[in-house]
Amino acid sequence: MDTRVAVISIIVEKKDSVEKLNSLLHEYGQYIIGRMGIPYREKNISIISIAIDAPQDDINTLSGRIGRLEGVTSKTAYSNVVSSHDDN
Hints:
Layout: E1 2-12, H1 18-27, E2 32-40, E3 45-54, H2 56-67, E4 72-84
Antiparallel strand pairs: 1-3, 1-4, 2-3
């Protein structure tokens, strides 16, 4: 299985979606390298960055599911770093 390193940038404008977002991130937790969240109180939004090392299909699926949450937007930037891992 090949994996890629990527960063998913997330902006949360609707606080009601945070629980669903956290649930999705927990679901993909095995792939997450790190997470940084910044509350921007003056604008009433949260900015989150997720560093991930996962199969590209899983990264695409997670990013798409995040982007479908109400009041949440996401963009993904991929590195050119691809690693092969055994499924064992």
